[in-house]
Amino acid sequence: MNNPLDTVLAYHQRTKHHLQRYAAGPGELDWKNQPDPFRRFVGTPQLELPLLAATALPLYVDLYKPGQITPQALSLDSIAALFELAFGLSAWKQYEGTRWALRCNPSSGNLHPTEAYLVSAGCESIEDGVHHYVSRDHLLEQRCRFATATDGGERILPPGSFLLGLSSIHWREAWKYGERAFRYCQHDVGHAIAAVRYAAATLGWQVRVLSAWSDAEFGTMLGVDRDPDFGAAEHESPDAILLVTASALGSTAVEPNAAALVNAVRGGQWQGQANVLAAHHSHQWPVIDEVALAGAKPETQETVWRAPELPDPASSTCGKTAVEIIRQRRSAQAFDGASALAAEAFYRMLDMTLPRHAVPPWDALTWAPRMHLLLFVHRVDGVAPGLYLFLRNEGIEAKLRAELNPEFEWLQTPGCPAHFSLFRLAAADAKNAARALSCHQDIAADGAFSLAMLAEYDTGLAQGPWIYRQLFWEAGMLGQVLYLEAEAADVRGTGIGCYFDDTVHDLLGIKNSSIQSLYHFTVGAALEDPRLQTLSAYAHLSGHAGR
Q1: Fold of domain 329-524
Q2: 3-state secondary structure of 247
Q3: Residue 405 · residue 448 · CB < 8 Å
Q4: Nearest to residue 196, comparing CAs of 145, 227, 240, 259?
Q5: SS (H, E, C) 195-241
Q6: What three-state secondary structure class fits 542?
Q7: Residue 9: which of 373, 284, 294, 300 has the closest Cα?
Q8: What is the DSSP letter of 109?
Q9: Residue 140 φ/ψ, nearest 5 degrees
C-alpha cells in the first residue's frame, strides 16, 4: 500500500497540464448524461425556508469593520438568510434554448460539486438533527432526527450555535474535467467557506473551521458514510465542518463535543435516499478516489494562529449593500482588453487578501497563510506593467529570494501601502505570458491584471497529506475575496483552472517542488453577450413564504 503522502504528491504531478499535453480528461462531453446540478434526498421531511425580504441591510464595506454589525438572534429566518447568501441561487441565465442556474458561491465550470448541511439543536422552528440544503428550492431536507437535544445532561451544541458541513460530489467535476476534478472540488470548498463567512458577517455572526476534527467524525455526522442511503447514486466525500456562532465579536465560541454529536446521529432516526445525478458515467477516474482516501484528515491537535496587527483596509468607494454585492457576483466570460483599473482599487483588492483579526473571511481559518500571489499587471493606473509578487506571510520572503530567478529585480512597488510586501520582479508587457500560461486563454491577457496563486507546498504537506486539500481551500477563498472585491469596484473577476503548472514554475526559475501554482484568476472590465438573459432566482417559488 502506498504511503498517503506519496499518493497525494503523485496525483498532483499526474494531473498537471503541460504545453505538450493536458491532464487526462473525457476529451468530449457526454451531454446526454450531464450530472443533475441539484442533489436531493427522496423521502425526507422538507422545511421551506423564508427568502430574504427587501429590508435595510448592512453595507458591503461594513463587513470588514469588526463590531459594526449587531448580531442577529439565531432563528429560522436568520439561518435561512445565511444559506441563501452562501449557497442559494443568485439568478437563472438563459441563452437561446438553454437555461441554467447561478449560485452565490462560485464553482468551477458552474458544476457545483459542493453540498451543504445544517446540524442544529435547540433552534426554534427547526427540528434537532441533520438537514441537507437544496438551493434550487431554498429548503432543508431532514436527513436525521435527534432523539434528544442533550446527551448525558450535556447539550449537543452550545447555545446560539450550529454546525455547517460541506461535502463534495467528485463526479460533478469529473464529468467535465476528468482526473483534475479533485483539485477543482477543493477550490470550491474554499469558495464555499468564504461564502459562508461573508454570509454570516451580514448577520453579525462568527465562523470557524473546526480544523482539529477528523473527516470520519463529521462524515458520520453528515451521513455521507451511509452507503445504503446512496445506493447507485454518486457518493459524497466529507470536506469541512464549520462552527457558526450567533454572538458578538469577542465572545468565546465554545467548540461542540464531537463524540456527543457522533452518538446523537448514531442514535437518531435517518431517512432519505440520494438521487442519481447521471444514469451513465462514460468515464471512470479511480485516481480521484485514491487521492481522496490518501488525503483524508485524521483527528489532530491544532494551534490557532492569530493574524498580525495591520492598518485598516484600504478604503472602498462601494456604496452597495453586502447582499447586493454577494448576489451580483458573476464569473466574467470575456474582458474588453482596453480598460484600466485604478491603483486604489487594485491595492484594495490585494489588501483584502491579507488576514486580519476578526475580519472575514480569513478569521474563519486557524492557520497562517500559505498562498502568495504572482501578479501579471497589464493595465493598472500608476503601476508599471510587469511581473509582481505579493507575499501574504512575510516569513516566506527570504526563501523565495533564494529560490527564484536571481535576475529578478525585487523592487518594492512605489505608491503601494506601507504594510504591503509587493515586489516588482520584472518590468515588461506580461499579456502574452499570462495568456500562454493560462492555457492560451485570452481572458488572462485582456483583464487589467491576472495572477497565479503560489502555495508553500513542501512545508505545508510536511504537516500531513490532508494539507493538500487545505491549500486549495485557501486558493478558493482568495478567489471569492477577489470576486466580491471586483464587483465592489464595478469590474468583474473570473477563476482560471486551466494553466500549465510547471511552465509557471519555469518562469520563476523554481527547480524543485517547494512552490506550486494552484489556481489562476483575472480581473477587468467584462464584456457581456447581449443575447444572454438574466432571470429571477426564485420566481418558480411564487407561493414561497417570505416572497
Answers
A1: NADH Oxidase (3.40.109)
A2: coil
A3: no
A4: 240
A5: HHHHHHHHCCCEEEECCCCCHHHHHHHHCCCCHHHHCCCCCCEEEEE
A6: coil
A7: 294
A8: G
A9: -110, 135
For residue 386, the surrounding DSSP H or E stretch is: strand 386-390
Length of the chain: 547
4-27+35-294: what fold? NADH Oxidase (3.40.109)
Ranges for all domains in the chain classified under CATH 3.40.109.10? 4-27+35-294, 329-524
Give the pLDDT confidence score for residue 547 in this predicted structure. 40
Q: What is the C-alpha separation between 447 and 461, in angstroms, rounded?
A: 33
- Separation of alpha carbons 112 and 131, rounded Å: 18
- Cell readout for 317 is 468607494
Locate 537 and state its grid cell: 432566482
Question: Which pLDDT tens digit goes with each residue over 470-508?
Answer: 999 999 999 999 999 999 999 999 999 999 999 999 999
Q: If you ran DSSP here, which 8-state letter would residue 525 be given? A: P
* CA-wise closest residue to 15 among 185, 159, 235, 215: 185
Global confidence as pTM: 0.97
CB 322 within 8 A of CB 58: yes
| DSSP per-residue letters across 466-494 | THHHHHHHHHHHHHHHHHHHHHHTT-EEE
